[in-house]
Structure formats: structure tokens, C-alpha cells
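Protein fold
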Amino acid sequence: MRPDPRTAIATVCLSGTLDDKLAAAAGAGFDGVELFENDLVVSRRGPAEIRRRCADLGLTVDLYQPFRDFEAVPPDVLAAGLRRAERKFDVMTALGVETVLVCSSVSPDAIDDDDLAAEQLHLLAERAGERGLRVAYEALAWGRHVNGYEHAWRIVRRAAHPALGVCLDSFHILSKGDDPRAIRTIPGDKVFFLQLADAPTLPMDVLQWSRHHRLFPGQGDFDLTSFTRDVLGTGYAGPLSLEVFNDVFRQADPHRTAVDAMRSLLALEDSLGLLDVPAAPVPSGFAFAEVVGKPDLAALGFARTGAHRSKPVELWTQGEARVLVNAHGEPGSIGALGITVADPAAARQRAETLLAPPLERTPGPGEAPLTAIAAPDGTQIFLCDGDDWLADFVRADLPLSGGPAAGLTGIDHVSLTQPFDSFDEAALFHRAVLGLTPGPTAEFAAPFGLVRGRGVSGTGLRLTLDCALVRRGGWAPAVDAPQHIAFGCADAVASARELRRRGARLLDVPANYHDDLAARTDLPDERVEALRENSVLYDRDEHGEYLHFYTELAGARVFFEVVQRIGGYRGFGVVNAPVRMAAHHEARRSAGR
């Protein structure tokens, strides 16, 4: 496979005017763009000026698209199509782009006749070739008569013109379940263009699926590594180009979206062995979690065991759980996470290559030179080598506080709410930069609207990413962007009893929940009663069981969870999230907040 492939992005992927889109693409490091015709039509810049602007930004225009409903049509429709094509060839010449994308026809005028389609595409390619241009024929998944890449290739082969080739689009191929391995039978010099898009698996009309739900590589369910390997195996020498229709991306900040898009291509190149970058780290666990504010950790059985050398930060510990309490910042938030990796320097290099540069940080005397990067939601993630970071904390002259431990053993997972616009970006970031594996996306009906969640996990480290799907109007009594830290324990019922005895403000669960639990499970009555008495929630999967309970809010949006995993349970008790959300709302209302 060739090293260092060129990269491109379709302007349709990004929000804004054409100037906005070009600046964002260049800023993210793309080599070129696919110019979508609508972006040209609404631009005040003429084609020649756009060409100059791209050159100034270091961009090439690699594809002009789309040219629709041309082939296998009656003579009068063909004549109109050729007139239209000549005008577009003029535009392409001024733009300095040599390839036009011709989509398989969806017109009712189209005839199911491959010979006619080949004949007319040959004629179009002849006119394009006379101008030094090329035609890339693409099979739309919803094409009227041609909707598969093998069919499109048969027509191109039958047309037999050097200026005619195929465009291969991962969505049109993989969304239909077509086998991409036959791509390798197409000569590389006849693959004129490659368009890449991922997507979640959705049981819906393929046209609507394509127009609204495409994602960048690594954010959906398609195997784009194998697909791209098949294309590169032909000898294809063009750019790796993104064509993603997505309602969120087309309304979001184009610069941030372009960086997300480039990160997805870099991660894809890494999966293909085309990127010179250290392997993804294998985080072995949480070194610490930092909470901004004044949570009552002593009531949870934590002991204050250290103070930072130069910052208003305290270290609280219980078992292997380490929580930093920071007096500065947004009260009631998770400010930072420390993750343990074997080689922080290599993890830093990977992060920089994947467009997550280290945050500026100047350690004080005697403090560890830690590297921190920013996750898409703004959380600082510190890359820690074992316990070196503990050198930042001293015990001298520190009045220790806290009592006997309450059975909490370590940090099981951390839950972070994501802005709606960056939910998919966050999953890709944690997979590509930190080497975590995304789990399935789940949606559930919460008391104040739909919520989407997804776990990302590795060896000894788990995160959950959540977002509200829709937020409309001013009535929003739900906790805004909640975050929480979940601590593991060996016996959730015993820990709940101990924490209540210590005066911890645990969240009360309505009796209806446990009545329903008794009805829908075969748990012994005495076990259900023990869960009820201590407001402990329950879930299970094919691997094991999950017992968990929550605290009330410790500030505006942070709370804590205590969990017990029995057997090989892999989830996060998502089925119980609506119960927790309603209970938090009732607790806030009772407290007058």
C-alpha cells in the first residue's frame, strides 16, 4: 500500500459559506476538497476566484459534484444533458478540477438498458476527454436501474473510454450489504475517485439514511478499514476523501467538524498501517478523578491524605480510589481525569498526531511533568506513568480527616455528558487517541426527553458518554449536563447501609421501582427487600449482575455512584437511568433547588 495518501473533504460535510468551508478544511490539514455544486452556486466568488482562493489556502479542487440523471435516456433528454455538461465543463476548467462525479440516474426518463447507458457515458467521456477532463460514474444505492458498484463497473467497462472510470462510495456499497471484495477486480487506473463515509446501522430507507445519518470513519458500524484496503489493493492512487451528509455536522462549527473529520482519516490510515504513529495506549485504570467544588467525601468514607504543593487541590483516598478536590474552577464539575498508561511520551506523540495537542502546563518545583490533553467536552485528561503524579502532593502539616472506609475499592467508571454536536466526535476521540473501545449506542426515554449514551472502555478503564437528543424551550428542570464518578465495591447493600449510617446523602428510590423489579425478575423476595431498604438498583445481562446506588447532587451537576459488578457484567445499568433522573429531580425540588 502507498504511504501518506492525500486527503480531501466534500464541502457538503461542513457548515457555513464556501469561504468558511474552505478555511476550515485548510485549517484542519486537508489537501483538497470535493466542491459541491450548491456551494458554488451560492458563492459570490466566481470559479476562477475560487481556484485562486483554494491555491492560497494550499487546497486543490479534486472533484466537482454532482452531475445527475444523465445516462440511458431518450435522445431529447440526452441532448439537454450534453448541453448542461458542456456548461459544467467550462466551470470545471475555470476551477482547475479535472474530475466530475456522475451519479447513476434516478430519473423516470431513465431506461433499463446497459448498452444505451454505456453508449451515452462514452459520448460524455469523449467530450470530457477532449478538454482534458474525466468522468467518475457512481452507483447510487437508490439508483433507478443502476444501484450497485459492480453494475456500474460493467457499464464503464462496456463504454471503454479512457476518460471514464468509477467512483466508489463506501456508503452506497456497505449500506446495501454488498461484498466489497470484488472491488479488487477493478483496475486501479479505472477507480477515478474514492468517497468514504461511516454510518450507524439503522433500519430505514437508504436515501434518508444517507442524507441525514452518515458519519466520519470510525464513528459508525461500517468496516471501513477492510473496505479501504480493498480499494487501495486495486492500485488506486487518488485521495482518501470524505463525503458525509449529516444534519449535525452541517450546523456545527466547521473548524471543529473539519478537525474531527481529519482525525477520523488519520485513525483510518493508522488502522491500515499508513500512519507513522505510536500504537494506541492501553490504559490500565484511573490514576485519579478531579472534582471542582466541596463534595463531602468524608461521608463517603474517604480520607484526606494530601495537599498539592502549589495549587488549592486536596487528595482524598479510599482503597484504590483517588479523588482530587479542586477549590478553583466551575463548582460541581469534573475538571480532570488521570489515566495510567505504560508510556506517556508515546501516548502524547499519538495525541499530537491525531490532532489532540497537549495543554500548556508549567509544573512547579518538585512537581511531576505530566502531559494533559483536552477531550472534546473540555475535560482535561492527564497521561500518568504509575504513581509519579503523587509527588505533587505532600502530607506535611495536613490535618487528616475522614473515618473508616466504607468498602469502596476504586473508580469503576466516570460518566461525562457531551454536547449534542460532539457526541460522535467524543467516541472517536476516545477510541483513536486513547485506545478505548466504543460499545453500542443506547437511547432511552428519560423524564425530560430522550437521552443517548455510549460506553467506551479498555483494560481497567471505563467511561460513559451521554447527551440529550433534543432540548427545546425554556422549561428544562433536568440536571444540566450531569457528570458522575462511579466507585466499585464488593457489597453494594453493605456499603449503602454504612454510608447511610455515616450520614451520606444517598438518593432515595421510589417503592414502585422495587415492586416492578420483583414482578419482572425471579430474585428472591428477601433480596429484593434488601435492595429496597437501601435504595439499591439492579440490572443483569448474560454475563452477570449489577447493583448500584447514587448520592444526591454534590453541587450543580456532579454526583457519585457506588456499583457492584457480579460475574462478568459489562454494562452500566442504563435501564435504571430514568429512575435516577426522576429521583434527582425530586430531591432537588424537596431541597428548594
Remarks:
- The mean pLDDT is 93.
